[in-house]
Design a protein that fits this description.
By secondary structure, this protein is α/β, with parallel strands linked by helices. The chain has a single domain, classed as TIM Barrel (Alpha-Beta Barrel), CATH 3.20.20.70. 44% of the residues lie in helices and 16% in strands. An 8-stranded parallel beta barrel has the order 1-2-3-4-5-6-7-8, surrounded by 7 helices. α1 runs parallel beside α12 and α7 runs parallel beside α9. The protein binds phosphoenolpyruvate. Phosphoenolpyruvate binds next to β8.
Length: 250
């Protein structure tokens, strides 16, 4: 039995005061839940706040990106070891907003994936097709190419220490969710592709669904055989909504 995981992706939202209220609400709501794992990925400046408010509890924290270099003259970049310094467990890699808005490629995402593993962080590696790609019937090719970027570099053993998030780009922040069957089909495809390299790693791999998950649709998505939890954007910014999704993963 794989353990479910629910991760909030705060994106570029929050301020010290609103984060405090949000984290207090999440901590209080999730404190008694034991059946799954929970985390929030916050903007870099708030890692210290997340660390001080979450340490010792059952909500882990992480970042939304990193630089693949250990250190150096990379103005504005954040090294993996810096995330470790702030107690991060997770780091999101290759989110479609990074790919679409910040020119991230399969090559750079794979380099970041390897760097996260070297630092002892758990990468949450995002894959997913655009609407045009889905309508053109190439969802599996797109997802396979994205996944192969890490499979060819880090191998199945690398994926054994990672989480994969299937996030159809057309469902992110749009209010349009993939149906449970649509999501399940791609999750099963991802697991089967990893199984071609290592069936044990594939069976144990945690594959999250992301894309307009709400309290109202989380249970039916999480009930699918190959959906092991969610990566939650908008709904992770409202404590009661995020807690309700965490409950759905019980
Ligand atoms: C995300 O940012 O990863 C995401 C899934 O966003 P939303 O839940 O808002 O669609």
């Amino acid at each position: 039995m794989r353990r479910k995981l629910v991760v909030g992706n705060w994106k570029m939202y929050g301020r010290l005061a609103s984060n405090k209220a949000l984290l207090e609400g999440v901590v209080a709501g999730v404190r008694e839940l034991k059946g799954a794992d929970y985390a929030v990925c916050v903007p870099y400046p708030y890692l210290a706040q997340a660390q001080s408010m979450l340490q010792g509890g059952n909500v882990a924290w992480g970042a939304q990106n990193l630089n693949q270099h250990e250190e150096g003259a990379y103005t504005g970049a954040v090294a993996p070891g810096m995330l470790v310094d702030f107690g991060c467990r997770y780091v999101i890699i290759g989110h479609s907003e990074r790919r679409g808005l910040f020119q991230e490629t399969n090559v750079s995402a794979s380099a970041k994936f390897d760097a996260a593993l070297r630092a002892g962080l758990t990468p949450i590696f995002c894959v997913g097709e655009t609407l045009a790609e889905r309508e053109a019937g190439v969802t599996e090719q797109v997802v396979a190419t994205q996944l192969d970027a890490v499979l060819n570099s880090a191998g199945a053993q690398g994926l054994a220490k990672a989480v994969v998030a299937y996030e159809p780009v057309w469902a992110i922040g749009t209010g349009k969710t993939a149906s449970p069957d649509q999501a399940q089909a791609v999750h099963a495809f991802i697991r089967q592709r990893v199984a071609q390299q290592d069936s044990h790693v594939a069976q144990a791999l945690c594959i999250l669904y992301g894309g307009s998950v709400k309290a109202a649709n989380a249970s039916e998505l999480f009930a699918m055989q190959d959906i092991d939890g969610g990566l939650i954007g908008g709904a992770s910014l409202v404590a009661n909504d995020f807690v309700a999704i965490c409950r759905a993963a019980q």
